[in-house]
Amino acid sequence: MAVKKLGILSLSLVLLMVILSACGSSGTKSQTAGKATNQQEFRYGMSGLFKPFNFKENGQLTGFDVEIGQALAEKMGMKPVPVTNPWETIIQGLQAKKYDAIIGSMTVTDERKKSVDFTNPYYRSGSQIFISGKNQQISTVNDLKGKKIGAVKASPYGELARKLTESANVVEYDSDLTALMDLPTGRLDAVITDQMVGFRVIKEKAIDIKELGTPLSHDNQAIAVRKGDTELLNKINKALDEIIKDGTYEKISKKWFGRNILGEK
What we know:
Strand content: 25-35%
Number of strands: 13
Number of helices: 9
Structural class: alpha/beta
Order of helices and strands: HEEEEHEHEHEEEHEHEHEEHH
Largest sheet: 5 strands, mixed
Oligomer: single chain
CATH superfamily of the largest domain: Periplasmic binding protein-like II
Strand order of the largest sheet: 5-1-6-13-7
Shape: globular
CATH class of the largest domain: Alpha Beta
Number of domains: 2
Radius of gyration: 26 Å
Helix content: 40-55%
CATH architecture of the largest domain: 3-Layer(aba) Sandwich
C-alpha cells in the first residue's frame, strides 16, 4: 500500500512539473509574440506608380524606394510598412499622419520645404527630356517649342515643359511609364521625367526611346517627414548613413540601376 501511494505521489509530481513547464513555455512564447507584435512600424508613403523606384509586381510593392525603406527600418529597429498614396496629395497624406515619412523619389525644392522637413539626399538625379528612338525632327531643346510634352501630375516637370514649349500644350499623366509609352505612338513629342526612370527603360529596351541633350537640372532626392519631427528626421539620417557605410545602399542601387545613384554632392 505504501509503495502504491509513493508511486501515485511520484506520478503527481511529474505531472505537476510538466504542467508548470508548459505554462512557462507558453508564457515565453506569449512574451516573444508580444514583442514582435509591439515592434513599432515605420510607415513610408509613395505613389506606387514610379517604376523602378516604387511599383507593384504580382500585387506586391517593390522597387528601389521600397527596399531603401526596408533597410532603414531594419537599422532603426522598426517594422517596414510601405504605403501608397496618389502623388498629387502625398504631402497632405503625410500631414494627416497616414504614414511617417515619404520615400517616393521626392525632389527637394524650396516650396516643399515650407510643408515638410527633408533628410540628407538618398540619391541624386536630374530632369531629362526623352523622345522616341525614331524621332529625327527633334534634335535640340529649341525644337520643342509648340510641341506636345508629357509630364507627371504635381511634379516639377510640368512647369519645365511649359517653359520649353512656350505654351500650355502639356499633357499630364499619373505615371511616367505611361507617358513614355506614348512617345513611339506619336501621341507625344517628348516627355520630361527623372533621368533614372528613362535610363532604366532604355536599359531594359522596354520602349524605343532616347534621351535628348543633357539634364535640365541636377536634383537632390530626399526623404520627407512632417514639419518639426526632428526625432524621426535624425533617426532616418543616422540609419541612412549606416546603410551607405556598410554597403547596403550600394547593393540595392546596383540591383536596380547597375550603379550607385547617390553620386557626388
